[in-house]
Amino acid sequence: MMLFRPVTQDDADQIAALAQQTGTGLTTLPKDPEKLKHKIALSIESFAATVEYPGKEYYLFVLEDTTTGKVVGTSGLAAAVGLEQPFYTYKVGTTVHASPRLGIHKTIPTLILGHDYTGTTEICTLFLSPNHRGGGTGKLLSKGRFLFLKNHPKRFANKIIAEMRGYSDENGVSPFWESLGRHFFDMDFDDADTKSGEDSNEFIAELMPKYPIYVPMLSEEAQATLGKVHPDTEPALKLLKKEGFRYTGYVDIFDAGPTIEVRQENIDTIKRSIDVNVVINSSVDSTQRFLIANRKVEDYRCVLANAQLIDNRIEITAEIANALGLKNDDQAIVTPMS
């Protein structure tokens, strides 16, 4: 069984091993063991905290294969980005240049550096071991966060965002970075991206141009990558679009990957969720799959399992109930899986 739960320090070594497989672009899962332990400690502190409104909290979840005890994936929620240091993005806008005398009217796309997403909640740190992809594990790893968010809305902002990895070629070269960022940073793309994600991003304000960038001045290859994701990220983008996330014209300042957004109440997993009471049966004769979660915080648990929904009751096996830490008549939250 795959179990979605909050991280513990006992998971540190296994997560460190996962981090070595992530390649570039996942800066919220640092490869440095000490930085990773700090992330885990912040997550444990966040789950334990009493929260009335979102702040610097960071919630890291893991996906555990209970048959082996092995951690096979991670995903996270950053409660409110940009509070301790700016959360930079480029807004794709337009400017108009006109000469009535010459009869010329030009609308030119621009990139404007800003931090419009300050205070929003970010879903992040999604990584699943390649050996465990398929069979619904990716959906559990992504959607399990949304039921936690539904259970505890005060911990998060109403607007939820996701930064998607931008396009780079088979050699890891980002056309957008080569056409823009490299001219302002004396470092490679990977170094700048890692420094921004794992350390202070103060250098961005110090080195990035302060004025709008005229998109036609970039290379044609760079222009074509605006809002385009890396091929490996396309399945994640497709999944989030089904959840209701939409691109509204914001892109990453390093690789031009899209930042997508949605309101809490418009997330599909949340919209279709149902509050239920638990009924434990020795066997459950059903082919219907459900995302099933308890209503707890530090002991939050979520699984993807067959169950029987009758009115406001969910019938589950004792194995599932034990994994979720639930007893007869306990409350749970479920979302039917199509």
Explain what this protein looks like in three dimensions.
With 338 residues, the chain is of the alpha+beta class. It has two domains: 2-90 and 114-269, Aminopeptidase (3-Layer(aba) Sandwich); 273-336, Barwin-like endoglucanases, CATH 2.40.40. The chain is built from ten helices and 16 strands. The chain has helices spanning 12-19, 33-48, 137-151, 175-179, 189-198, 202-207, 220-224, 234-243, 268-271, 318-324, and strands spanning 2-6, 58-65, 70-78, 89-99, 104-114, 121-128, 159-163, 213-214, 246-251, 258-263, 274-281, 289-293, 302-306, 308-310, 313-317, 331-337. It has a ten-stranded mixed β-sheet, sandwiched between helices. A six-stranded mixed β-sheet has the order 13-12-16-11-15-14. Helix 1 (12-19) crosses helix 2 (33-48). The protein starts with a strand and ends with a strand.
Shape: elongated
Low-pLDDT ranges: none
CATH topology type of the largest domain: Aminopeptidase
CATH architecture assignment of the largest domain? 3-Layer(aba) Sandwich
CATH class of the largest domain: Alpha Beta
Question: Please, how many domains?
Answer: 2
Number of helical stretches of at least 4 residues: 10
Rg, rounded, reads 22 Å
Strand content bin: 25-35%
Distance between the termini: 20 Å
Order of strands across the biggest sheet? 1-2-3-6-7-10-9-4-5-8
- Kindly state the mean pLDDT as a whole number? 90
Q: CATH-wise, what's the superfamily of the largest domain?
A: Gcn5-related N-acetyltransferase (GNAT)
Major sheet description: 10 strands, mixed
Element order, helices and strands? EHHEEEEEHEHHHEHHEEHEEEEEHE
Helix content: 25-40%
User: Structural class per helix/strand content?
Assistant: alpha+beta
Total number of beta strands: 16
